[in-house]
Design a protein that fits this description.
Layout lengths: L1 H6 L4 E3 L6 H12 L14 H10 L6 H17 L7 E5 L5 H15 L3 E6 L2 H14 L4 E2 L1 E3 L15 E5 L9 H13 L6 E7 L4 H7 L6 H17 L8 E8 L4 E8 L3 E5 L4 E5 L4 E8 L3 H10 L2 E8 L5 E8 L3
Parallel strand pairs: 1-5, 2-3, 2-6, 3-4, 3-5, 6-7
Antiparallel strand pairs: 7-14, 8-9, 9-12, 10-11, 13-14
Helix pairs in contact: 3-9, 4-5
Amino acid sequence: MLQALELRKPPIEDRGDTGSFNRMAEDIRRGLEAEQKFISSKYFYDARGSKLFEKICHLPEYYLTRTEMAILREAATKLTKAFRDGDIVELGSGANWKIRTLLDAMGNARRATIRYIPMDVSADALETAAAGLLSLYPELEVKALVADFTCELHHMPSNRPKIIMFLGSTIGNLNEEETGRFLGQVSDNMRPGDRFILGLDMVKPVQTLEAAYNDSQHTTAAFNKNILLVLNREMGADFRPDDFEHVAFFNEDSSQIEMHLRARRRVAVHFAPLNWSVSLERGETIRTEISRKFTRLAVEEFVEQAGMMVDAWHSDPNGWFSIAQIVSQRG
């Protein structure tokens, strides 16, 4: 199997400066100098972070992935109906099980006409997932892009019909302003006939929401703290993860789960390459993620504001999760 993966190693193109030291340094300084300190959740996903998140997806409390997968299996034929000779672009692609559901629905002949373009900030995660797909679907063309989907969508190829996939309710990690900007970029990159497949976590009982981010195995806590290890390695910081505790709660006013790292004591952290330090008082937090929860009306409104429209809506019987097929209103 290892030899097969080496033979079918996917081409990976770095089209952004997501991983550059200067971009990351700018992000981290802006976040840790804010009144409410924060670190962008995109920095969770190094190789270890991606593995931890994959483990989270299989936890009993974490309903999101299994519910979305059930919807995908039910709707896959409709979502890919008549699509051929085009590109499937998956934003924040991570592991490859979701795209496999759509590829299986297409069949061998149509898959041979498709180019799959995963876009992610982690080159390691891209290579692992894409190589696995090539071993399963030898007829498939794969071209991976290392890029930040929040600001580098212009790197997507635009000369073929496309399905753009943004699953896992990752859109919930963007605040309202970021969501509008991101959807505007998606809209700008869509032609008539293109499809945008959007996964959305819906509003539901608070107990269910909070349990999903506070699992009994503490895997989410390890995932949360992993972001500090990423900063230590990439930014030369000296965070000690044991100085922080994982905190996750539902903010009803903002309709969002928030994940934080709360300082157990007064903490001073030095970033040697930047010759810069930051301190936190005991009890002070660093917000590492928001995960907004949606209603269908809210989704339809922000999609329309971006010049698109919801063309089809797929949900589970409980209405806990939804997948919207979105098309451009232009042209």
